[in-house]
Amino acid sequence: MHIEVQLCCVSRKGIKIFVNKLIIKYYSILLTLIILVKMSNNISLTEILTEVFEHLEPHELHSCIFVNRQWCKISIPILWRSPFHECNLLRNKWRSLNLLARTCLLCLGDNKRELLMNESIPLPSVPSGQQPIFDYPSLFRVINIEIICTMSDAWVISNKGKCTRSEYCKKVLRKTLIEHLLERAEMIHFINLDEFNIKPIINKNALNLRRLKKIRFSSPTTDRKNSSIDNVSTFSENVSIFSTLINNLQHIIVENHKQHGSFIEYESDTKALAELVRNQGSLKCLEISGYYMNISSIFESLKGKTTTLTKLSLNRVDLNFISQNAINSWISCVNLKSLEIQNCKIVEEIYFNSGQQIFPNLKKLVFVNHVAKFPINFIIQIIKSTNKNLEFIKFELDHLTSVNQLSLINTAIHHCPNLVHLNVDELLNSQLIQILDSFRKLRELKFDTSNEFDNNTFIEFAKHISQTLKYLYINVDYYPFPDTFRMFINNLNDDVNLKVLHISNGAEELRNECREILEKHGIISTRIHSYQPFL
Ligand SMILES: *[C@@H]1O[C@H](CO)[C@@H](O)[C@H](O)[C@H]1NC(C)=O
Ligand SMILES: *[C@@H]1O[C@H](CO)[C@@H](O)[C@H](O)[C@H]1NC(C)=O
Ligand SMILES: *[C@@H]1O[C@H](CO)[C@@H](O)[C@H](O)[C@H]1NC(C)=O
Ligand SMILES: *[C@@H]1O[C@H](CO)[C@@H](O)[C@H](O)[C@H]1NC(C)=O
Ligand SMILES: *[C@@H]1O[C@H](CO)[C@@H](O)[C@H](O)[C@H]1NC(C)=O
Ligand SMILES: *[C@@H]1O[C@H](CO)[C@@H](O)[C@H](O)[C@H]1NC(C)=O
Question: Can you give the pLDDT at residue 32?
């Protein structure tokens, strides 16, 4: 009844918002919804079904195919957006890849069919009149090159008897299928370029890439210039191909796995990447990993992205070479909401002009530092500049002195009243209590205890847990005893909403007796998936 009242007065936009909130599990509700919408509005049935189907789980959507022609026509395009992803998740991965290969082969045009037949690659047989109803490849939105390769291999291997030169067959089939999928998939918005020689294929299909939103480059460990059959390009050539073709990317991921590249190689890699970044008019996310060299030029290319860039993630990047120009471009990205700096190298402090609002909109800050010293003032300056907007902090700081640790946590306490998630690798007892008392919106707290953590601290801790805290993950050296658990529970305030308390010493399980004490109080003691914003 509640649904009825709401639906009668919603607009087209309202319905979207409403359905978004509704988790439809029962078809009766779905049907009622459709009838109500038809009665109350001029929204077409197709529109409302599409909106509803978007929110179903794949297995639920799958049953919709069999309802009638209209339902089938609406659900198939949604189901086939990212078939590779689904295949990967299924238990019988090999079999599903094989079936997927079969479907793709059935959708090939005559020319490509003939080409494969000429190469003696076996094609699936279909009784006449049973060709696929849909052109499935045209529905794909995500193309994962690596999985297309695995899928091709699966087909060749399961038809082993018919392919005499199986390595050669795999190669031809991979190329043909990738080419075909790129030709057909007008809607693709993500290409995952994992070590496949895309160069000869990509230029032909340039037009189809205009909608591309996301791209991931993953370099091999060394440039392999020699290849007898393929015309293999270098990493920077690969990146350059895309900078000339696309200017609408929102998300760029680059993972460099080269260990021993020459300086020249590195330099051309960074140059190519800088060019790619510069050419994108509305870049939102940039994730770079594995650049232990001067990446100033990449940062400099962020200059035009002052309003669009919302996420920057740096992993294993050397920030020692960073030029003042690069810093200026970086901090001009005032809309940055998420900044992750993990295992980067930097020895010198980075200073901004005092009083400068660096990242006033920052909501998520991740700072993981196992490798070397890191300029702590730099991080403190960032926290201070966030205008109290920070909601998510993760710190792992192996090499931090206790003085620096204190000042870092203190800065957070004073400048982040809106914090929702805090994950710190080591906290002192006094800091624990201070954190619980200061962050009044905290929903999730993860920490490692220091060696002074004892039964009494645990019991005292309970008194400070606020109404908002739902998830608590504690790594301890020694488990508190069952009596301590009882006292912990007794000390909780009446209005506490704690859902999960996961305590672990990394070795044995928590004793059943302790689990039961928590469960009796409605608290789960296993780790469950929780709050993860701004991913
Ligand atoms: C297949 O082989 C035939 C005979 O050699 C040739 O005429 C035809 O062009 C080939 N087709 C393709 C697509 O390569
Ligand atoms: C360039 O891309 C091709 C596939 O597009 C790949 O085979 C090659 O390994 C890549 N080269 C580098 C150095 O990343
Ligand atoms: C690459 O090719 C050159 C010349 O053809 C040859 O000398 C070299 O050994 C090859 N390198 C590899 C890794 O195959
Ligand atoms: C490799 O590509 C170049 C052009 O980029 C072309 O001239 C050459 O013939 C190609 N080599 C092979 C073996 O395909
Ligand atoms: C790093 O690169 C930038 C721009 O490409 C350049 O201006 C700077 O001199 C380089 N720094 C070092 C230490 O090589
Ligand atoms: C907690 O108290 C028990 C006795 O109840 C003691 O054996 C244990 O060592 C204490 N653990 C810590 C970490 O203080």
Answer: 66
Please report which ligand is nearest the Cα atom of 458.
6
Number of the ligand closest to the Cα of 111: 1
Q: Cβ distance 506 to 500 under 8 Å?
A: no
Q: Rounded CA gap, 329 and 323, in Å?
A: 10
Please tell me the distance between residue 233's alpha carbon and the centre of ligand 2 in angstroms: 5
Counting ligands in written order, which one lies closest to the CA of residue 232? 2
Paired strand residues for 472: 445, 501
Most confident of 30-44, 260-274, 471-485: 471-485
Atom in ligand 1 nearest the alpha carbon of residue 112: 13
For 344, the token pair is 């980067």
Q: Which of 108, 118, 119 to mutate to test the pocket of ligand 1 (most atoms within 8 A of CB)?
A: 118
Strand partners, 397: 369
Tally Cβ neighbours within 10 Å of residue 333: 24
Atom 6 in ligand 1: which residue has the minimum CA distance? 118
Cβ contacts of 414 within 8 Å, gap of 6 or more: none
- Kindly give the number of the ligand 1 atom that is closest to the alpha carbon of 111: 13
The pTM score is 0.74
d(CA 208, CA 236): 22
Do 198 and 242 touch, CB atoms closer than 8 A? no
DSSP bridge partners of 215: 191, 252
Give the list of residues 6+ apart from residue 141 with CB closer than 8 angstroms, or none: 81, 82, 185, 187, 188, 189, 190
Ligand 1 atom closest to Cα of residue 114: 13
The whole-angstrom distance between residue 316's C-alpha and the CA centroid of its chain comes to 18
Instruction: Name the closest ligand to CA 222.
Output: 2
Q: What is the pLDDT of residues 34-56, one digit of tens each?
A: 676 666 666 777 887 888 888 87
pLDDT, tens digit, 9 for 90 and up, residues 196-206? 555 556 666 56
Query: Taking a C-beta distance cutoff of 8 angstroms, is the pair 141, 188 a contact?
Result: yes
User: d(Cα 283, Cα 38) in Å, to the nearest integer?
Assistant: 40
- Residue 250's identity, in one-letter code, is Q
Q: Whose CA is nearest to atom 6 of ligand 6?
A: 481
Query: How far does residue 200's CA lie from ligand 4's centre (Å)?
Result: 9
Please list every protein residue whose CB sits less than 6 Å from any atom of ligand 5.
294, 296-297, 321, 323
CA-closest residue to ligand 6 atom 1: 455
Three-class SS state of 362:
coil
**Which residue type occupies 85?**
H
